[in-house]
Design a protein that fits this description.
β1 (72-78), α3 (86-96) and β2 form a beta-alpha-beta unit. The chain is 49% helix and 16% strand. It is built from 8 helices and 5 strands; from the N terminus they run ααβαβααβαβααβ. The chain is elongated and about 80 Å long. The longest helix has 24 residues, at 8-31. It has 2 domains: 8-53, no CATH class; 72-204, HUPs (Rossmann fold, 3-Layer(aba) Sandwich), CATH 3.40.50. A 5-stranded parallel beta sheet has the order 3-2-1-4-5, with helices on both faces. The chain is of the alpha/beta class and 209 residues long. It starts with 7 loop residues before the first helix and ends in a 5-residue tail after the last strand.
Length: 209
């Protein structure tokens, strides 16, 4: 979900447009009440039309390049509520067998839309960090050395941010099954395959496991 208030320039532009529209409506209402209503309707219709005409820019497919030694395998894991799943940990252990592994686990900080727009992410980041710590501890007990970080609430953005410094050979995306996964409803896995040219593996973790 894109937050229009992350950028100061966007927030300032939004504020100016809001003040301008409000001033126009008030000025029209001073002239005539019904004129004010008409201007309000026109401004509202223009805002709705502008919103629905917006088209997200299609990202350029990113090339992911291995940056470590030849015998090293770099695995990027993206997961949140499924971080404790045994099927996910089993896959990571399997991928790390017989190689010098570099594992980066990224846990997007899931947040409610209202808190996200208000830039109130402390609670979401704390929950993500707790899941991440538990996952890293379980992997360490299984003999897999991994590091982790809390990522952007948008899993695709979290992947892109991680790839800036971590050239992954494989991207593992873990979700709940169809019907229980908001990420699958949003097409996160399919969009990731369109957006990044690394090997992408989708792991399903049943709720409660």
């Amino acid at each position: 979900m894109r937050n229009p208030f992350r950028s100061e320039a966007e927030a300032y532009r939004f504020l100016l447009l809001t003040i301008g529209a409000f001033t126009l409506i008030v000025a029209a209402a001073f002239v005539n009440r019904w004129l004010g209503v008409a201007v309000w309707l026109l401004v509202s219709a223009a805002a709705v039309q502008f919103y629905f005409r917006q088209r997200p820019e299609l990202p350029v497919r990113a090339h992911v390049e291995h940056v470590g030694p030849e015998d090293e395998r770099r695995i990027l894991v993206i997961a949140n509520e499924t971080l404790g799943g045994e099927s996910l940990r089993a896959l990571i252990r399997q991928r790390a067998e017989g190689v010098s592994e570099q594992v980066l686990v990224v846990c997007p900080a899931l947040n409610s839309p209202v808190r996200h727009w208000a830039s109130d992410e402390d609670g979401a980041r704390a929950q993500a960090q707790a899941r991440l710590d538990a996952c890293l501890e379980a992997l360490a007990q299984a003999g897999v050395q991994a590091r982790g970080e809390v990522g952007d609430a948008d899993p695709l953005q979290a992947i892109e941010d991680a790839l800036r410094t971590f050239g992954a050979d494989e991207i593992v995306i873990s979700t709940h099954p169809e019907g229980h996964s908001h990420w699958l409803e949003r097409g996160v896995v399919s969009h990731a395959r369109e957006r990044f040219d690394a090997t992408i593996t989708h792991v399903i973790v049943e709720p409660g496991l």
